[in-house]
Amino acid sequence: MQHADLIRLAQETPLRLLLVNAGEPDSLTWSGLVQPLRLAAKLLGPQRLHVDVRSPDKFAGEALRPWHLVLLAADEAEAGLRPANMRSLAARCRAAPCWGGVGAGVLWLAEAGVLNGVRSALPWSLYPDADAIADHALFSPHLFEIDGACLTCCGGAASIDFALTLVDLLFGATVQAQVKEVLCVERVRGLEERQRMALQARFGVLQPKLTEAVTLMEANIEEPLSTDEIAQLAGLSRRQLERLFKQYLGSLPSRYYLELRLKRARQLLRDSNHSIVQVGLMCGFSSGSHFSTAFGALFGNTPREERQRKLSE
């Protein structure tokens, strides 16, 4: 998938990135976010990347600056420490070309109303706190989301994956590999990977049929089920199933299932030695051309290019 806003951002020299820390400086969420980005800035030099840090109060009180990317971060355990004047703080964040939140910052931005209609990676443990705004925000079970100019991450250990993915998208795989080596990180989890317990936390009690349908999809990657078969096994009509997926996941079952299979294929291309043909078959694609076309439509490159990228790293 092409991220047009980040691609434009990568052309800025130097790229000015601001991290607004609303939590403790020794939390996993904060250290996982700031360390990879500061290492990248050290490797690239101030002429290419400038990373700065502010407290919410200092950021809200200073004059507007030409930040290119602003991220509001706090650990999910600090969700009750909501910054004062959150609406004006959210507006300051949105003034940047790209902006977003990490951990509890995602909840605060959603409560301020700036994530309405935006796919956002809210930490699964904060879903109960977001009941009042769940009808307006599209909370995702993934580790992080890039939806246009808005970037969100569930925080915790996923902050490292999120920061390293940003380094890759903005400055390339070589710089990311150098940062990974310093941090002793072997694998970066991607956009397609879910938070553990996310689906169960959000839907398990209220929408057990939806959780069951997604579980069926995840268990049948190599030999995909039809939408009618999934609906029947989950004890729903096709129309009921489509309504649940549209309401809670913002997608049709068939589309969600296809993306699930393609994201699994990308993971295999990156992390296994299976041939491209084998990967396609393992993810339910009997036609190589269909696999390549669908992969390109979702990720913006071909399976062969994805594999080549892994080899070059």
Characterization of the model:
The chain is of the alpha/beta class. It has helices at 4-9, 28-44, 56-61, 86-94, 104-111, 158-171, 173-183, 198-203, 208-219, 227-233, 238-249, 253-271, 276-282, 288-299, 303-312, and strands spanning 15-21, 49-54, 69-74, 98-103, 119-120, 138-139, 144-147, 150-153. The strands form 2 sheets. Strands 2-1-3-4-8-7 form a 6-stranded mixed sheet. The chain has a two-stranded parallel ribbon with strand order 5-6. A hairpin with a 2-residue loop joins strand 7 and strand 8. The longest helix is centred in the last third of the chain and has 19 residues, at 253-271. The radius of gyration is 20 Å and the shape is globular. It starts with a helix and ends with a helix. The mean pLDDT is 89.
- The CATH homologous superfamily of the largest domain is named Class I glutamine amidotransferase (GATase) domain
Kindly estimate the percentage of residues that lie in beta strands according to DSSP: 5-15%
Total domains, how many? 3
> What's the overall average pLDDT, rounded?
89
> Helical proportion?
40-55%
> How many E strands?
8
Low-confidence stretches: none
**From the coordinates shown, what is the CATH architecture of the largest domain?**
3-Layer(aba) Sandwich
CATH class (first level) name of the largest domain:
Alpha Beta
**How is the biggest beta sheet arranged?**
6 strands, mixed
Principal-axes shape call = globular
Distance between the termini: 20 Å
Q: Give the SSE string.
A: HEHEHEHEHEEEEHHHHHHHHHH
Q: What is the chains' assembly state?
A: single chain
InterPro entries: AraC_XylS_family_regulators, Class_I_gatase-like, Homeodomain-like_sf, HTH_AraC, HTH_AraC-typ_CS
Pfam families: HTH_18 (PF12833)
Keywords: DNA-binding, Transcription, Transcription regulation
Organism: Massilia forsythiae
